[in-house]
């Protein structure tokens, strides 16, 4: 089973929940992993079994980065907030970088996330 990482900054959490709601039938077919707050919110709102890491500022981005480095993540959807500075900016940059190192498709906004899931669903037909 392939793995999708789902991560959202606070200003994007509602958008992530809405996105997951719109794609939950497809997402059910994947192992889902998320940073703590994002994953907890998804688990609370929908019948999805998201594995949660630490919260982003406490090292969750790095944990997901390590999963990418060890080829345990296939796609990353990271709805990041481009308008607010984050205390863990170096971790965020490292996560984005490691996706490029390992050629992992990465969506940082809702439209590109939608395109990734469209691609994934076509591959499953
Ligand atoms: O900060 C984050 C990503 O950089 C997200 O972490 P949370 O899902 O715990 O809010």
Description:
The chain is of the alpha/beta class. The chain has a single domain (3-109), classed as Methylglyoxal synthase-like domain (Rossmann fold). Helices cover 50% and strands 15% of the residues. Strands 3-2-1-4-5 form a 5-stranded parallel beta sheet, sandwiched between helices. The longest helix is centred in the N-terminal third of the chain and has 15 residues, at 13-27. The protein is globular, with a radius of gyration of 13 Å. The mean pLDDT is 96. Bound molecules: 1,3-dihydroxyacetonephosphate. 1,3-dihydroxyacetonephosphate (13P) binds at residues 7, 9, 35-38, 55-57, 60-61, 92.
The count of DSSP E runs of length 2 or more, i.e. the number of strands, is: 5
Strand content: 15-25%
What best-fitting shape do the alpha-carbon axes yield?
A: globular
Order of helices and strands: EHEHEHEHEH
CATH topology: Rossmann fold
The spatial strand order of the largest sheet comes to: 3-2-1-4-5
- CATH class, named Alpha Beta
State the helix count. 5
Derived from helix and strand composition plus strand pairing, the structural class reads alpha/beta
The largest sheet is:
5 strands, parallel
Name the CATH superfamily assignment. Methylglyoxal synthase-like domain
């Amino acid at each position: 089973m392939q793995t999708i990482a789902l991560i959202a900054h606070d200003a994007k959490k509602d958008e992530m929940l809405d996105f997951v709601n719109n794609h939950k039938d497809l997402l059910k077919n994947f192992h889902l992993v998320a940073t703590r707050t994002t994953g907890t919110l998804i688990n609370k709102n929908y019948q999805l079994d998201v594995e949660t890491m630490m919260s982003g500022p406490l090292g969750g981005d790095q944990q997901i980065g390590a999963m990418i480095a060890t080829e345990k993540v296939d796609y990353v959807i990271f709805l990041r907030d481009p308008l607010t500075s984050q205390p863990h900016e170096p971790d965020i940059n490292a996560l984005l970088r490691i996706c490029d190192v390992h050629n992992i498709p990465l969506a940082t906004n809702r439209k590109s996330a939608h395109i990734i899931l469209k691609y994934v669903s076509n591959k499953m037909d």
